[in-house]
Specification:
Largest sheet: 4 strands, mixed
Structural class: alpha/beta
CATH topology: Phenylalanine Hydroxylase
CATH architecture: Orthogonal Bundle
Strand content: 5-15%
Shape: globular
CATH class: Mainly Alpha
Number of helices: 12
Distance between the termini: 18 Å
């Protein structure tokens, strides 16, 4: 949907190629549901999960946000083997009304937002570096390493995103974004396909720079939950950072002045929604909010920004 129309891309800044070329994208007309076969998870896949988890756990304990730390400690997300969706989903549903739905892979915008609008979060049980991943994309040049794959895998979905769904304010925020995305696609205002695409890109930009790659100011209040105090100015709440050792380490090094690869920019919703992004590289910028409450308020008070009419 968003790649088909480019008339209004001239309004964006930081316009760079970011298509997920080669990735199989599922729509509502495809057999997108794929129940997890937990007994079929191999020892190798469990070891890949364990290596990814242990490599990040110490850094996340020190630098992740309060919402993440509280969420992951209340869910049965193991460090040494694949998570079992059926064990996690009822706890989230009891807490915030969300549930997990096991899917076959990357979903298109309409299906993703429709699921979120119904408080369903899609997760896949395929993991990077595994034979199953390699088999799925046999003959295709798809990046597949510990630091990154363009198709969200089980580690990104469950280890990084799911803990936040235990927080009511965050869960309500995600739900509302799902409703908004679905309303844009349905186009009851009659804006037409070019503006639907443009407004979806605005919402994608917002999602990317917030719940995927966002930072929140470190006030020191979360240190009571940590083994070691956070010694930088920020906490991490973006799931794209949380599931990547390289991205997490980049933030630490930049915040400590050891690298100038990325800049930290105070959050401004107008700037955020008009800034495109790159799927395949360490981010060159991170938008920082003063608090999660400020983020939510900015979204709810400025939703008209996602309804550009030309």
């Amino acid at each position: 949907m968003t790649k088909q129309y480019t008339q209004y891309d001239r309004l964006f800044k930081n316009v760079i190629p970011n298509a997920v070329g080669g990735i199989r994208i599922f729509s509502k007309n495809d057999p997108f549901e794929k129940p997890q076969q937990y007994d079929a998870v191999t020892n190798l896949e469990n070891k890949i999960w364990e290596d990814l988890f242990i490599n990040l756990e110490r850094l996340l304990d020190q630098y992740a946000s309060k919402e993440y730390l509280l969420g992951i400690r209340t869910l049965p997300i193991p460090h040494d083997r694949f998570p079992e969706f059926d064990a996690i989903s009822p706890l989230i549903e009891n807490s915030t009304g969300w549930s997990l739905i096991s899917v076959a892979g990357f979903l298109d915008e309409e299906l993703f937002f429709d699921l979120n609008a119904n408080r369903k979060f899609p997760v896949t049980d395929i993991i990077r570096k595994s034979p199953r991943f390699e088999e799925k994309y046999a003959g295709m040049d798809i990046q597949n390493d510990e630091g990154y794959t363009p198709e969200p895998d089980v580690f990104h979905d469950v280890q990084a995103h799911v803990p936040f769904l235990m927080n009511k304010d965050y869960a309500d925020f995600m739900h509302d974004m799902g409703i908004l995305g679905y309303e844009i696609i349905k186009d009851e205002k009659g804006l037409g396909p070019e503006l639907i695409s443009h407004n979806l890109k605005r919402l994608q930009n917002f999602a990317w720079w917030t719940y995927e790659f966002g930072l929140v100011k470190n006030t020191g209040e979360t240190d009571s939950l940590r083994r070691k105090a956070n010694d930088i100015d920020y906490e991490i709440y973006g799931a794209g950072i949380i599931s990547s050792y390289d991205e997490t380490n980049n933030i630490i090094e930049c915040a400590k002045g050891n690298s100038d690869h990325s800049q930290f920019i105070p959050f401004d919703i107008e700037d955020v929604v008009m800034t495109r992004f790159d799927y395949s590289e360490i981010q060159d910028r991170y938008y920082t909010v003063n608090s999660m409450t400020d983020l939510y308020n900015s979204y709810y008070e400025n939703k008209d920004i996602f309804w550009y009419e030309g």
